[in-house]
Write a structure and sequence with these properties.
alpha/beta; Rossmann fold; 5-stranded parallel sheet; 43% helix
């Protein structure tokens, strides 16, 4: 496989905690400890002659449009100029959604409904297309790592019911903007089914372990290759 992004290009990953993955901790690798770092490592091994600039702009807890009180300038709409446009990406990878989902069931939080999520997400893509017409997109859909027959409490049942609506929104936007797409939810459901449980990929439903992040990195690598 050959990468769609050529030497000298810039690739920006933006999203929530799944992208962040400790990259903002003191002494941490700026690419974090998750799929962004694993993707960069794959690139170094598989494409040693390719030199691209990679940025990780994930922020733990982020949503498409809602800033977090304890993190100045959080919320994708609030930091899009500095964390995307000013970096002049040739490729932009976006993985956002699970916190938008849970905002609907979190007391005291203004909900980011599926309609709001899609409208704001659409606006971010349009804004990028206008500022960087040549930039290409990779959308990574939200996921919830459910095991077959798993007993769910009321909160988890609500999240599981809502997630598909956000996934469908991402898929519609992928069609609209002709993007590359990583269907992480489907990927994890198939992996969990074949392994007979979630344990190899994460201890809970939202955050993958290293193996889960490696699976995302591999899917990203395939999506960015021809």
């Amino acid at each position: 496989m050959a990468l769609r992004i050529h030497s000298g290009g810039t690739l920006v990953f933006i999203g929530d905690s799944i992208t962040d993955c400790s990259r903002r901790e003191e002494g941490a690798d700026p690419l974090g400890r998750g799929y962004v770092k694993f993707f960069a490592s794959m690139l170094a091994v598989r494409e040693p002659d390719v030199r691209i600039t990679i940025y990780n702009r994930g922020i733990n807890g982020d949503r498409v449009n809602s800033g977090l009180a304890h993190i100045p300038n959080s919320g994708l709409t609030n930091r899009w100029e500095s964390d995307v446009i000013e970096l002049k990406p040739d490729w932009l990878s976006i993985a956002i959604g699970i916190n938008d989902v849970t905002s609907n069931i979190t007391p005291g939080v203004t909900p980011v409904t599926p309609d709001i999520y899609e409208k704001v997400y659409d606006g971010l893509l349009a804004r990028t297309r206008e500022a960087r017409p040549s930039c290409r997109f990779l959308l990574i859909d939200p996921f919830y790592m459910l095991a077959d027959g798993e007993a769910l409490d009321e909160v988890k049942t609500q999240v599981a019911t809502l997630v598909p609506q956000y996934i469908e929104a991402v898929h519609r936007l992928s069609v609209k903007y002709k993007t590359q797409l990583v269907k992480t939810h489907d990927m994890f459901q198939e992996l969990i089914r074949r392994h007979g449980g979630r344990t190899p990929f994460g201890a809970e439903l939202v955050h993958p372990n290293e193996t889960g992040h490696l699976a995302i990195a591999e899917a990203v690598y395939r999506a960015l290759s021809v």
